Amino acid sequence: GNWKCNPDKVSKLDGLIANIQAVDTAGCDVFVCPSPLHVAYCNGKFTNGAKVVPQNCNAMGCGAYTGEMAVEQMKDLGITQVLIGHSERRGEFGIFPFDDNTTLAKKLKYVLDAGMSCVFCIGEPKEIRERGLDAVLAEMDKQLDQIYHLLDPSRVVIAYEPVWAIGTGLTATPEDAQATHAGIRALIAKKASPAVAEGIRIQYGGSANAKNAPDLAAQPDVDGFLVGGASLKPEFKDIVAAMAKAKSA
User: Which of 119, 121, 139 lies closest to 130 in space, CA to CA?
Assistant: First the structure.
């Protein structure tokens, strides 16, 4: 669950925490990404196994890096995982690009060298999707090219985000999601190894909600969800339940 830059008041956090607390985590790993100002408040509040995961980190550590977060600070809080590469950090939706494929490769190495795990986001904008699956996978290859050698299935999760579907209400069809995930897995098999491809989890992150989660979760190469807006709502528990049910079948 990625809360992005929400909520606007600390007083609303307990309600959001309650939504996560209502989730049955027995069949799924569950993590939540609060905004940076809320990470410390949320950390340690979950008793059901859900983990707090910051939305970004730098690649330099502590020091003269104003406005940044270091994994050393996260580890001191007992945090073991971080999210990097979200499309909103890569410069989508008119936001200044804070990251590119090169900076993200450096960040991933830094995270792994520090002994932490990572959710690494990739995805394509609408103009690439409109050119077809081959164009999408060529873009995914470009975004993965500098990190294939770093893909440890026990410590790296790939989150595929069709950027055109984030926050728009549009969602890839289950068939499109499966074809793209299968293509990404094939790239990893070719450029890393078949064992890495088989073991790595590839999440879907494009306006997943309680209604579409069962059909998306039923796809064999969709291993999880990166949930945005719906993670701020009570329906988040239903999304997790759909994934757990699909993967236990």
Answer: 139
